[in-house]
């Protein structure tokens, strides 16, 4: 792992949004099996370890992220079982169930581009932003243990309703548990899918003094009835 690799996986504001929910759900994480899909630096798993998770599993498509997560988890003083696995989405954990699933996957509607010393796989959610969001949501029913909880970072401009439909088709509910406003850097904006930009400006995207800000949500997704 070079310094450049570690820099590429540094936490973002989106990481912090999910992290806050990990800390808020300590009692549900304690003793549980936690999966982080698209683990990057592994910091969300470190927070889950702090909440007393019983098993920590990170999956990432980038070998350098897997290496960084393994390094970070290896340095923790935790009794939890730890794994850092290379592969796409649920492929490395086929057939397994988790009490908590974390996902802060790339879900920015954009063309393929590396921005701000990040790899393109950090943000690139395809034209609609849903290229990875849809399959990760579609796999929750098969991978969430009974009573399990998924915490998902979700750009408001990629369509909450579509997410709720995918959840409900599996007997799950998706609800907003947190939200924040983030600036979109001009470099990133320049790669954003124009149709999404035009459709969402004034709705979930806002221009102030020439700068564009976006609404970002944290969702809790769980079996209907579990969270109410
Ligand atoms: C926005 S970053 C989030 C990283 C970390 N979870 C965090 O919150 O800081 C998205 C991560 O998803 C990974 N990723 C992209 N495509 C993936 C895929 N198909 N399967 C698994 N991980 C993927 C990227 O390599 C990157 O580490």
Describe what is shown at a glance.
With 228 residues, this protein is an alpha/beta fold. Helices cover 32% and strands 29% of the residues. The chain has a single domain (3-223), classed as Rossmann fold (3-Layer(aba) Sandwich), CATH 3.40.50.
Q: How many strand segments?
A: 8
Structural class: alpha/beta
Any idea what the CATH superfamily is called?
Vaccinia Virus protein VP39
Q: What radius of gyration results from the CA coordinates?
A: 17 Å
For the record, the count of structural domains works out to 1
CATH architecture: 3-Layer(aba) Sandwich
* First-last Cα distance: 43 Å
The percentage of residues in β strands lies in 25-35%
CATH topology value? Rossmann fold
Per DSSP, the total helix count is 10
Assign the CATH class: Alpha Beta
Stretches where pLDDT is under 50 for at least 5 consecutive residues are none
Give the quaternary arrangement of the chains: single chain
Helix content: 25-40%
Principal-axes shape call: globular
| Distinct small-molecule ligands in the complex | S-adenosylmethionine
Protein model, in words:
With 228 residues, the protein is α/β, with parallel strands linked by helices. It has a single domain (3-223), classed as Vaccinia Virus protein VP39 (Rossmann fold, 3-Layer(aba) Sandwich), CATH 3.40.50. Helices cover 32% and strands 29% of the residues. It is built from ten helices and eight strands. The protein has helices spanning 3-8, 13-24, 26-29, 43-50, 63-74, 133-138, 140-143, 160-168, 186-189, 194-200, and strands spanning 33-37, 55-60, 81-86, 98-103, 144-155, 172-184, 205-208, 211-223. Strands 1, 2, 3, 4, 5, 6, 7 and 8 form an eight-stranded mixed sheet that branches. α2 (13-24) packs parallel to α4 (43-50). The longest helix has 12 residues, at 13-24. The model has no long low-confidence stretch (mean pLDDT 93). S-adenosylmethionine is lined by residues 9, 11, 14-15, 18, 36-41, 43-44, 59-62, 65, 88-89, 104-106, 121-122, 132.
């Amino acid at each position: 792992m070079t310094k450049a690799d570690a820099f590429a996986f540094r936490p973002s504001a989106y990481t912090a949004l999910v992290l806050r929910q990990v800390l808020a759900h300590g009692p549900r994480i304690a003793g549980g099996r936690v999966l982080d899909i698209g683990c990057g630096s592994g910091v969300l798993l470190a927070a889950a370890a702090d909440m007393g998770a019983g098993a920590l599993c990170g999956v990432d498509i980038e070998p350098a992220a897997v290496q960084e997560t393994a390094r970070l988890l290896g340095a923790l003083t935790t009794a939890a079982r730890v794994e850092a696995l290379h592969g796409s989405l649920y492929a490395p954990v086929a057939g397994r169930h988790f009490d908590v699933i974390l996902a802060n996957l790339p879900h920015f509607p954009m063309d393929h581009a590396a921005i701000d010393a990040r790899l393109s796989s950090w943000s690139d959610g395809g034209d609609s932003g849903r290229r990875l969001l849809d399959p990760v949501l579609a796999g929750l029913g098969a991978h969430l243990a009974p009573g399990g909880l998924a915490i998902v970072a979700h750009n408001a401009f990629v369509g909450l309703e579509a997410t709720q439909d995918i959840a409900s088709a599996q007997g799950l509910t998706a609800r907003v548990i947190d939200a924040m406003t983030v600036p979109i850097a001009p470099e990133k904006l320049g790669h954003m899918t124009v149709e999404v930009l035009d459709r969402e400006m004034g709705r979930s995207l806002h221009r102030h003094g020439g700068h564009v800000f976006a609404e970002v949500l944290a969702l809790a997704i769980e079996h209907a009835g579990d969270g109410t």
